[in-house]
Amino acid sequence: LRLDEKVRVVVFKSEVKGVFCAGADLKERAQMDDAEVGHFVKRLRNLMDEIAALPVPTIAAIDGYALGGGLELALACDLRVAASSAKMGLIETTRGLLPGAGGTQRLPRCVGIGLAKELIFTGRQIDGQEAASMGLVNHTVPQNSEGDAAYQRALTLAKEILPQAPFAVKMGKLAINRGIEVDIASGMAIEGMCYAQNIPTRDRQEGMAAFREKRPPRFTGK
Fold first, then answer.
1. Which of 13, 90, 172, 212 has its CA 20 to 30 A from that of 21?
2. Signal sequence span per UniProt (predicted)?
3. Per residue in 171-194, pLDDT tens?
4. Where in 63-205 does DSSP place strands (E)?
């Protein structure tokens, strides 16, 4: 996906009704020794980092349970849409663990330190409505009879992104992701570098031409 220039948006959904991702298989985990567990969780953390580093926008469609590593997967995405009945939580402390695939880092960056600490310390599960109220998800929707309301809303959101200039969207994502980790002066420098890369693109010229000619732009990603 990272190397496919035709990919404009990635939507993560589950093929299992009522479950987005239920997290680790604790029965499987119980068969591992300490070294194996450490290696396994490191691989999961690397996977989440790979997802977070995808150059195009990513959307998690949470139509059911997103628990432990399942919520960490959703947090690795840029945007999250949840059914109001979905259940989410970093429940690791209820199993003698702590989030190990990015949860302790991405949740506070998403909802703030105080709420993240409360959710992680208590292992509490929240529904889609609560998640929306704290900014954990971008949108919450009532579940439908097919059980894919969040996915349908995610597709609508993806279709809003698709007409926009692909390279500009990628640079916007890069500037946000890199800039949020540094002081604002450094962030401004990062934005400037990303903007400089966008200046010579054909899409920038097309955007201005379309504005002058009062027509929709036809972006190509070049």
1. 172
2. none
3. 999 999 999 999 999 999 999 999
4. 65-67, 79-83, 87-89, 126-127, 139-141
